[in-house]
Amino acid sequence: MPHVSYQHNPRSIADDPLYVAAGSAPYTRSDTPVSFRVFPNGTSSFGSDLLTSNESIARRVAETREWLGRMREEVREAKRKCKAEEKSASLLCSVLRASSALMTERAKGRRSSRGRARQFRFALYSFLDGTPFLTPQALCRYNTALAEMLSDDHLELIRRHVFNYDEEAFANLLYADEVAESLERRAPYGGGELVPEFVQRFNETSRRALERLFAAPGGLADATINAAHRVPIVADDVENVAVHGE
Fold first, then answer.
1. Number of other CB atoms surrounding residue 223 within 10 Å
2. What's the angle, vertex CA 225, arms to CA 223 and CA 229, rounded to 5?
3. DSSP 101
4. Which residue stretches of the chain are H helix?
5. Tell me: the pLDDT tens digits for 169-210?
6. Are 113 and 239 contacting, i.e. CB atoms less than 8 angstroms apart?
7. Residue of 118, 119, 126 whose CA lies nearest to 99
8. Nearest Cα to 84, choosing from 216, 208, 195?
9. Which domain of life is it from (predicted)?
10. Of 77 and 155, which is predicted with more confidence?
């Protein structure tokens, strides 16, 4: 068999149509400092004397510092966003935990003297973490126990950022005395009656206060949620939960 030899003809990169089309354009990234950008042939965007020019070196240092500053700001922004998402998730978990324990576990198995299951009238929500309670007495016990676990600095943050130093408003949501007094003056609850207006107002005020607490600085939301996890849930007074006029 005759021997066939192949002659290797090296191909110049300049023959590559892709290189020709993009050969004059430097490779850049939007987040890369200008002094770091290079052309495809390896030369810098400032010429061959980049490393020997004091002016070019100073410019490169300045651009690098500016770029690092932008990167640090992006990292800080990402951390702030992550912390906000963690707080939101933690707050949601706290509310769901308490709601599940109170509204579902106790909704079954409670029976009156006539054997019928008791029904809930309404719920009162804590402004500290959104936990619902069926009586103002249970809400007061929970709020005061949670507040005692907070530091003086965190209580000061609540007074300042949540209530703007309105001590009367603070006490009303903390102890729910006005709701308790209004309930004592009311006629027995009827099965088809809507939630009383004073309860709706109380819960709406609690909701707005909870939003301000969540937005307050100083780690107040995290401290409150951590304290809430250590507060035992005390059962409501069953007689106040039952539907009257059975």
1. 16
2. 115
3. I
4. 17-22, 54-99, 136-149, 152-157, 167-175, 177-185, 197-215, 220-228, 238-241
5. 999 999 998 888 888 776 555 555 567 788 888 988 988 898
6. no
7. 126
8. 216
9. Eukaryota
10. 155
| Closest alpha carbon to 181 in 163, 196, 193, 165 | 196
Q: What are phi and psi of 196, to 5 degrees?
A: -55, 150
Which helix (DSSP H) or strand (DSSP E) does residue 125 occupy? strand 124-125
CA distance 38 to 28: 7
How many angstroms from the chain centroid is the CA of residue 128? 15
Residues 6+ apart with CB under 8 A from 95: 129, 130, 131
Phi-psi region of 219 (alpha: psi -120 to 50; beta: other; left: phi over 0): left
| Under 8 Å between Cβ of 108 and 190 | no
Residue type for position 50: L
Q: CA 29 to CA 165: how far, in whole Å?
A: 52
Write down the pLDDT at residue 151.
94
At 158, is the secondary structure helix, strand, or coil? helix
Matching residue, tokens 């640090």: 72
pTM of the full predicted structure? 0.51
**Domain map of the chain by residue range?**
96-241
Q: Taking Cα atoms as reference points, which of 65, 72, 76, 73 lies closest to residue 34?
A: 65
Can you tell me whether residue 2 is helix, strand or coil?
coil
Residues 6+ apart with CB under 8 A from 81: none
